[in-house]
Structures are given as structure tokens and as C-alpha cells.
Amino acid sequence: MNILIVLIPVSICLGAAGLIACLWTLRSGQYEDLEGDAARILLEDDMWVEGEEG
Amino acid sequence: MTVAACTGCIALAPSVETARRGVPDTEAAVYLALPQIRCAACIAGVEGVLAKLPSVKAARVNLSAKRVRLVLAPGCDVSTALQALNDAGFDAHELDATALRPANDDAGRHLLARAAVAGFAMMNVMAISVAVWSGAGDVTRVMFHWVSAAIALPALAFSAVPFFASAWGALRAGRVNMDVPIALAILLAAATSLYETFAARGAHTWFDAALSLTFFLLVGRYLEHRARATARSAAAELTALELPRATRLTATGRETVDVAVLMPDDRIALAAGARAPVDGIAETAAMVDRSALTGEADPVALAAGDLVCAGEVILGAPLTLRATHRAEDSTLRRLAALVEVAETGKHRYSGIADRAARLYAPVVHGLAAVAFAVWWALTGDLHHAIAVATATLIITCPCALALAIPAVTAAMTGRLFRAGVLLKSPTALERLADIDTVVFDKTGTLTEGVAVLPALDPDAASVALSLAQASHHPASRALAASLAVQAPADLRDVVEVAGKGVTALWNGEPVGLVRGEDGPELHLPDRCIPLPLTETPRPGTAALIAALRAGGWQVAMVTGDTSARASALAAKLGIDQIHAGVLPHEKVDLVRGMSEQGRRVLMVGDGLNDTAALAAAHASLAPGSALDAARVASDGVILGGTLGTVAQTLSLARRARSRIKQNLALAAAYNCVAIPVAVMGFATPLMAAAVMSSSSILVVLNALRR
Questions:
Q1: Which residues of chain B have a CB within 8 Å of the CB of A15?
Q2: Mean pLDDT of chain B
Q3: Residue from B1, B12, B17, B37 to probe the interface with A (highest A Cβ count within 10 Å)
Q4: Which of the following CATH numbers is that of domain B244-341: 3.40.50.300, 3.40.980.10, 2.70.150.10, 1.10.260.40?
Q5: Which residues of A touch B62 (CB under 8 A)?
Q6: Which of B190, B483, B515, B588 is a good FRET partner for B342, with 20 to 30 A between their CA atoms?
């Protein structure tokens, strides 16, 4: 049963990592255009970034 | 659930990075509405067109909102971008950025963050609960309770704040709302569980129940928030669409400028039926319609020098307005606020649900108290009595009932918005569901006018242009567009009579652009020149009429035009009920007459002569090209060049009504079954939380399904 002392914190930490990742996606505005993001994977590279970098 | 969402989101991250780089947040941005974009090819097309323009520094399409956000090079105008998009076949309209207040959905994001924390804590506590319920003993069991408490209490303290805040607000005001039983149940479950943890007697704890209740309610709350946000953004989009431009009179002539740059003392030309963009002073006597601001239907007569408020519609004669305030200070912002209030307003059905919830709240608490007292008296087991009372509180909470309507409204308003129909009246969806007859205006609604001009001498052409510019009638607009190269003549006392035409004085003699036997006629002091117009039906109109008739709706056409022209068009489109040669006030009588026969009429019209009929009909829609006055009077605006969405709107409204009824029945049935089970002590708080949330989620899913 002593293994629980390791397992419980590990499982909580893994869950917390997921939670933090989810809060980050919220903060960085990744849910603002879900339809557009779904469509954009079909496109070639983003033209505006190319313009700025090239 | 949390983890699955996150892996998906991490994959999406690069596109957000490009969005950040693509459109810097710091610079002033311009928004264009693109009602017709649907797919990846449209995104590529729009961004490709804009990338070629030197005046555009950056652009990013938002497909969900059907918008593109532009950053312009310094000193550049948005008109080239609009022109380029329209040339490429994308229907683009400029939006008023100040009215949009884009993407600032902090409340929604906070709710999601709270739901994420509750969901995370719920999963962990439930994993531990599995061990407890499957029989962990003694020390291990006590340790598990402590771990659960350590996770659950901070998570509840953060996640359940919306319920506590709302319940406290209601209690302080001496009311009881739906959040009171919820907050009470969460507190009771947490407090008894904490007591059991300290006492370490090995009795059950309910941290899992409190957390899952919080989590599923937050998900429901978030969906409800989305419903209201969708309605609000439709309202914002309408306001943003309506007033981005004004016609300013300068020493050299007319120029079209952004409403935002109008300064006090600018002179602004307003055609009959146009809306004042800023507060100002009328330079001539005029009639104005204040109904949008005051709800007062009768027109108000103004003398020269009287104050005109932004948002008032000019009737009768065209007017020159001298601005007294800038747009952002004008009363229009108050109007926008009013629209927003109306949008978030309650439904007829919502009213029923609210009343039910209010009657129901004392019942919830009463039942829980009775269950607690009876179980304590009968068994003497305080812990069990509290568990039954908590389960009763949770199970009887009328959350599904409260979600039944907003969930449907959200789904349907969003679907209509995607189809290009913006509803602005909160009850519009319900009234659209009642419709059995659709009445279309002809000119400007079913058809688009194209002017075929005879050769005109310069005097006639310049008088015709000035008269046409004074009106927003589709025929006038078509004439003005084809005469735009001429210099306008100097006219006085311009008056527009709805359904008749425009008259004025030119060099002291009467001239007019009036409705003749065979289309518009130009009356000059010495002669009369017919200006024939050919009319082409809008694309998709015949298919729309066929779809409406197939769906069981009656279709009628009403027009001020001659019956020969009307019948020719009606035959082409397949309309059998024609009312030709109808004057504006007769249009109203016609619509009223139909209502008195028990028919529920949807009026679709765009002009000054339709406004009264639009207001009188059971429900009304105006095309996006319609006059401001018509858009104010109607319940919704159809964006995009076609009318094809009318049939879709009507069938969606019917579906919304049946979904609302299903949802109310579902919620009522759930309560009938669940309450006896809870009171009789067959449900643990965890089961209660699961059952209650599943009924809420079921209601939401029923609203969202196709």
C-alpha cells in the first residue's frame, strides 16, 4: 500500500498538467475561431507570415 | 475530458501564433463582414486578394464570425480593399469597429476556466472514490478522505463562486433563485464530508457529488452564456452594419465619409428614409420617425433649427443636418445599448420557465427540509438524513427547465447567423414559427432594378440625378448610379412622397421624378421623359418561392407597380396571389386584413413604402440592401444578395418551437420521476448529481442536434 504515496501525487500531477495546458489554451484565445482553424489545416502556409518573414 | 481537449488544442497552437503575428493587436483594425464565406477556399481567396493590396498591412479571416480583421497601412482607406473583395466575388460590408467591441468574451472564458478546474478535481476525486466505494478500509480510507478533501475544497472554493455569488445576491434581495438550492447543496455536501473526514468514522463522504454537480452545472451555465453571447453579437453586428458611412456636404460637392470622422458643424445630407448618424440640428423643416428611440409610432414634425437625435429616421423630405456631436458621443450609443438589452431579454416561453422556477424554489427547499426531518425522526441517523436532504436538493433543482429555452435559442440563432440571417427582436423566433403566409414587396426585394436610359440632354440628366440622389427607392438608386458622371442640378424644396416619387423646384419651376404608367418618369417644366427600368429577379428567388410553396406557406406579392408588370414577374416566379397598384397605406391595410382573416403574415420588404406594413405584420424581414427605416421596422435582416434563406428561416423557427416544447416536456418528466426517488431515500448525493446533470445535458443536446 505504500506505493500509494507515490501513485496518488503522480496521478494528481498528471491531471494538473492537463489542467494547466487547458487553461493556457483558454488564455491564448485558441477558441476564438474554431471553424476557421479547422479549415486552415487544408491551406498552404499562412501568406501573411510569409510576407513578413520573406 | 480535460486532457482530450488539451491535446487537440496543443495541435491548434501554431495557427494562433500566426494569428498574433499576422494582425498586431496594437494597431487600429478595421472589420469587414463577409456573410457568404463558408470554407477553407474562401479563407485563402479573401486573404489572397487582400495580400496583393499595398494598402493592407495584415488580414486575418475569422470563419466562425464570418469576418475579416484588417490592419491598414498608415493613411490608407478601406475602400480599395472593399472594392477588391467585391470584384473577386466576395460580398463584403464594412463594420463599425466601435459598435463591435470584438472578441472580449472574458465572462465565457472565466466560466470555462472554472469548469476546467472543477472537471480536473472531479476526475481525481472520483478515481479515489472508486477505491473507497470498492471497500478500502480503516487507515487507507481515512487517508483517501483527506486527499479528496485537499483536492475538493480549494477546487470548490474557486469553481462554485458563480453559484455562491448569484445565490447570495438573490438572498440579500430577499428572493430565492435557482442557485440557492445549488449553493446550499454544495455547502451541505462539503460540510458533512469535511465533518466525516475529521471524525474519521469511515462513513461516506460526498466530495465527488459536490464536484460533479459543480462541473456539470458550469458546463450548462457556459452553454447558456454562449446563447446570450450569440444573440448579443448578432445585435452588435446589426448596429455595426448599419451606420459606417455618411454623405457629407462640402464646398465642392458630396463626399462619402466614415461616420466616426464627422465633426460638429459638418453638414450631412440625408435622403428620405435614412437614419441620422449623429446628433445635429435640422436646417430645414422635416418629419422624423422616432419609433426606434421612443417606441412612439407617429412621425414628429420638426421646424428648421430643431434637434435631431442619432438613430431617428427622416421621413418625407430629404434633410440637411448640421452635426452637433461626434458619432461616439451621439445618442446612437444609447440606442445600441437598448438593442442589446432587448436581445438578452426574455422569451414568452422563458417567462413560463421563470415563473415555474420561482414557484418551484420554495418547493425544492420545502421538500428537502421535510425529507431531512422525516428521515431523522424515523431513523435517528443524522448523517443519512443530511444525505437524503442533499440528494433531494440536488435532484429537484429545476436546472433542465431553465436551460430548455436558452439552449434552443442559442443553437437556432447561431444557425441562422451562419446562414446569413440576423434576428434582432427577442421574440422573433417564436413569431416566425407561427407564420403561414409570406408577403413580398416587389421592387428592391424580389427584383433588382437596372436603368436603361434614353439619351438625355445635360439639363435633364442633372435634374434627374439630383432628384434620384434625394431618394433611396431602388429605382432612384439605379438611376443615380447610371447618372453618376453628371453634375447635380441645384434643387429646392425637395419632397419625397412614399409610393409616388420625388418632387422639387428647379429655377423656381416644379420638376419631379414620379411613378408613371410604365416605370419612372422625369417631369420637367416643359416636357415629360419616361425613364424605363428593367427589373431582374434576385438570384434564387424562383427557387425560394417553390420551396415556400412546397413547405405549405402561401406566397403573395404586393407592389405599387402596374398590374401588367407585376403579373409578368409573378408568372416568371410562380406567385399566384398578386396585389398590384397598391399605395403604401393600402399595403398596411392589406397586411392587417390578412391578419384579421386569421392568417399570420411574414412581410419581406425593403423600402420607405413598406415600413408601415413591416411593422404591422406578425413578423418581418428586410434584405441587407434595405433602407434604414425598413431595417429598423423589421424583426431581422437578411445578409447576402439572395433571399433564399427566408424558407430556411421559417423552417428553423418551426423546429425551434418544437424543440422548446420537447425540452420543457423532458424537464417536467425528469422531475416527476426523480423527486419521489430522492425523497424516499433511494438516491445518494452522487447519484443525484449524475441524474440531475444528465437531464440538463440531455436538454442541451436536444437543442443542438440537427
A1: 2-3, 120, 123-124
A2: 77
A3: B12
A4: 2.70.150.10
A5: 32-33, 36
A6: B588
HEC string of B658-669 equals: HHHHHHHHHHHH
CA gap B401, B277 in Å, rounded: 43
ipTM score of complex: 0.78
Would you kindly state where each structural domain of chain A is located, as residue ranges?
10-53
Q: Which three cell numbers stand for residue B414?
A: 447561431
Q: Which residues of B427-458 are buried (b: 16+ CB within 10 A; e: fewer)?
A: bbbbbbbebebbbbbbbbbbbbbebeeeebee
DSSP letter for B273, please. T
| pLDDT score recorded for residue A52 | 41
What is the topology classification, in CATH, of domain B421-446+538-639?
A: Rossmann fold (3.40.50)
**Residues making up chain A, counted from first to last:** 54
Centre a 10 Å sphere on the Cβ of residue B379 and count the other Cβ atoms it contains: 13
Residue B377: per-residue pLDDT? 92
Nearest-CA distance from A27 to chain B in Å?
8
Grid coordinates belonging to B16: 494562433
Tell whether A21 is within 8 A of chain B (Cβ): yes
What CATH number labels B20-95?
A: 3.30.70.100
pLDDT score of A20 more than 90: yes
Task: Please name the residue of chain B whose CA is at the shortest distance from the CA of residue A4.
Answer: B140
- Lowest mean pLDDT segment, chosen from B43-57, B439-453, B589-603: B439-453
Kindly report the pTM of this predicted structure.
Answer: 0.66
**What are residue B55's phi and psi, to 5 degrees?**
-80, -10
Other C-beta atoms closer than 10 Å to the C-beta of B304 total 12
Q: What does the pLDDT look like over B367-386, one tens digit per residue?
A: 889 989 999 998 888 888 88
How many C-beta neighbours within 10 Å does residue B655 have?
A: 16
What nine digits make up the cell of B647? Answer: 424558407
Domain B449-535 CATH (choose: 3.40.1110.10, 3.40.50.1820, 2.60.40.1880, 1.10.10.410): 3.40.1110.10
Instruction: Bin B66: left if φ > 0, else alpha if -120 < ψ < 50, else beta.
Output: left
Long-range CB pairs of B623-629 (<8 Å, 24+ gap) are B623/B444, B623/B445, B624/B35, B624/B93, B624/B241, B625/B444, B626/B444, B626/B445, B627/B273, B627/B274, B627/B472, B628/B242, B628/B273, B628/B274, B628/B275, B628/B313, B629/B273, B629/B274, B629/B275, B629/B289, B629/B313, B629/B315
